[in-house]
Write a structure and sequence with these properties.
Residues 426-449, 473-511, 533-557 are annotated as: Disordered. The protein is α+β, with helices and mostly antiparallel strands. It has helices spanning 27-50, 84-100, 115-119, 166-175, 177-180, 184-193, 200-203, 214-222, 227-235, 239-242, 265-273, 294-312, 331-340, 352-370, 380-390, 395-400, 418-429, 442-451, 455-467, 490-529, 533-536, 542-550, 552-555, 563-566, 572-587, 593-600, and strands spanning 12-19, 62-64, 73-79, 104-110, 137-140, 143-146, 205-213, 256-264, 470-471, 474-475. β9 (470-471) and β10 (474-475) form a beta hairpin. The two termini are 56 Å apart.
Length: 612
């Protein structure tokens, strides 16, 4: 089936909030109820949202009327650009909303579909795939819920070969909540990805000193969120954009001051990692690289280019006055929640800091609530100019503040050691690793590797893999018994029982004949290969080999009727391990077919100690 969802941009996430048990008899009353819930939701999550810096678009909700099979709901779309952490913060918000409002169920997906299931792919039942997951996966009461596969009449769930409507799925979710709760390993995988929120919001910020024109310092003090479009403008610049930066009309470099700028880690990395030499006509000069403030000068120069590019695209000031947010009925609840949660940090109403915080709150409210189309900042350059024009400042005061700047954050997180990279890859690959806090001595690591290394495990793992099920979709990695889901085999067992009854003994006889024919064919093939290089490349069983050597002279003249007795059985396990080890040695510690296969089977072989 083709999922009935609209096309989503590559770097965007879409989310919908449904009433689990709606009263649809009165459409107008239903809409009023959803609007009231929207106000309550914004009041609940406002303190988290206002302080957040979004890469491209903020989290936003608005009312959507009933359309086709999709009932009326609250929903939105957020383009997160290069910062995938924005997408997972939205998942955290949805979990928080559904935990606080128990009558709400959330659906979230991106252009990959149900990306929550992708995160827990190793623990999913085999029947659950992209075709069978539509309208089955919900965040409800703060946890992941999946409608079970109904295989018999009277069971809870929905058949995997048909797609329930949203209303049908919500009814199953409401009536059989416990049965729909995802298995613990699936929920644990999602919880691990969201571990650290909401404190993780602050951890993803990065404060750095930047030597910027005074106007930029003032704008960012009142609108910290404008750092995102400025960095993006520099990061995605083209030659036409840089024409505006030959001479800086809006933010002249001779007014530069040192200030502290708050980035997200993604924005900081984008700005820091790009090499750029300014136009000589711009007036921006950099000190030598050994200068202690070289990085602050370089970051400020890049930021100034981003701001200047945006302001050059702002066009003429709009003659239309923006409607006051206070006229929106949702604003009062939004503002009360901010005050209740300490957003204004005890600042007196009317103070400079209070006004800055209020400006940020109003800006977010306009983007996330009152905007009916694109939630992103429509004209960031114009907003920068407006803030700059509305704010008076003294250049001397800004220079005096340089001596009292908070310390910079360390950017050591930009540099990942090979060991840390290996740990991250192992975590993402699903291999059992520690939480990173345990330190192991080199000798101890070697002992652990050798203790966990078993040739028997290698051979048995490969045999299990060969005997596992495969199809046009690929081979399946054998699972441990305790990882199998009861739904994995129910359908196949029922179908097999019917076939066995119908086929009876005739099928067994046919199978036996086919097996005999195959054995004869394999024997003939062994005889032909015995005298070739392929035959000599295998290692034979030692015991049989010794017997064959002792009687070699007597068999030499015995004739062709004794050829079969000369065929010595192979030591399959020894040949398997020998070939795998040779393949691993040829990889020289790099990734390759042998190491990838063994890793997927959960088998870790220590490095080769024989360097010859």
């Amino acid at each position: 089936t083709i999922q009935n969802i609209p096309s989503i941009p590559e770097d965007a996430v879409q989310y919908q909030l449904f009433l689990v048990h709606p009263d649809s008899s009165d459409a107008e009353a239903h809409e009023r109820f959803l609007q009231q819930i929207l106000q309550n939701i914004l009041a609940e999550i406002a303190p988290l949202l206002v302080q957040y810096i979004w890469q491209h678009q903020p989290f936003n909700l608005r009312y959507h009327p009933e359309k086709g099979d999709v009932p009326a709901h609250l929903g939105g779309v957020t383009e997160f650009g290069d910062n995938v952490e924005d997408e997972w913060f939205i998942v955290y918000l949805l979990k928080h909303i559904t935990c606080t409002f128990s009558d709400i169920a959330a659906v979230v997906y991106d252009n990959d579909g149900q990306f929550l299931l992708i995160e827990a792919a190793e623990h999913l039942p085999k029947w659950l795939d992209p075709d069978s997951s539509e309208n089955r996966v919900f965040l409800y009461r703060g946890e992941l819920h999946i409608l079970p596969n109904r295989t018999r009449c009277g069971e809870v769930g929905w058949p995997r070969d048909s797609v329930p409507t949203v209303v049908q799925a919500l009814e199953v979710l409401h009536s059989h909540t416990e049965s729909c709760l995802a298995k613990q390993p699936i929920r644990a995988a999602l919880a691990k990805r969201l571990d650290g929120y909401p404190d993780k919001i602050q951890q993803n910020f990065h404060c750095a000193h930047c030597y910027v024109p005074a106007g930029i310092a003032v704008v960012l003090s009142r609108r910290p969120d404008l750092i995102a479009p400025a960095v993006s403008a520099f990061y995605l610049r083209d030659p036409v954009d840089l024409q505006a930066c030959r001479t800086f009309h809006t933010f002249p470099p001779d007014t530069r001051v040192m200030t502290s700028v708050k980035f997200t880690r993604c924005l900081y990395a984008q700005l820091q990692q790009q090499r750029f030499v300014p136009d000589r006509r711009s007036g921006f000069t950099l000190p030598v690289r050994s200068h202690p403030q070289y990085r602050a000068h370089e970051l400020g120069m890049k930021l100034a280019h981003g701001f200047e590019i945006l302001c050059s695209k702002s066009g003429q000031s709009s003659s239309e006055k923006e409607a006051s947010v206070s006229s929106n009925p949702l604003w009062r609840g939004f503002l009360d929640s901010l005050k209740k949660n300490g957003y204004f940090k005890g600042e007196l109403e009317g103070s400079v800091r209070y006004k800055d915080l209020m400006t940020s709150a109003e800006s977010f409210f306009r983007q996330s609530v009152t905007s009916t189309h694109c939630p992103a900042i429509q004209n960031p350059g114009q907003e920068m100019l407006k803030v700059s024009e509305d704010t008076s400042y003294s250049l001397d005061d800004l220079k005096n503040q340089e001596a009292h700047l908070p310390p910079e954050d360390s950017d050591a997180w930009l540099d990942i050691s090979p060991q840390e990279l290996e740990r991250l890859l192992e975590e993402r690959g699903g291999r059992g690793v520690s939480d990173g806090t345990r330190k192991t001595a080199p000798d101890e690591e070697v002992q652990e590797e050798e203790a966990g290394y078993s040739l028997i495990a290698v051979t048995q793992g490969m045999k299990n893999f060969i005997n596992a099920m495969s199809s046009h979709e690929g081979a399946e990695i054998p699972s441990k018994d305790d990882e199998l889901d009861s739904d994995d085999f129910e359908d196949d067992d029922e179908e097999d029982e019917d076939e066995e009854v119908q086929n009876g003994e005739s099928q067994k006889q046919a199978d036996a004949e086919a097996l005999d024919n195959l054995r004869k064919y394999m024997d003939e093939m062994d005889q032909e290969l015995q005298s070739t290089n392929i035959g000599r490349s295998f290692t034979q069983n030692n015991r049989t080999s010794n017997t064959a050597d002792a009687s070699k002279s007597s068999l030499a003249d015995a004739g062709s009727e004794l050829v079969e007795e000369e065929i010595q059985p192979l030591d399959v396990d020894l040949n398997l391990v020998s070939n795998l080890l040779e393949s691993l040695a040829s990889q020289a510690g790099l990734a390759g077919p042998a190491s990838n296969l063994l890793q997927s089977l959960g088998i870790h072989i220590p490095p080769d100690a024989d360097q010859s």
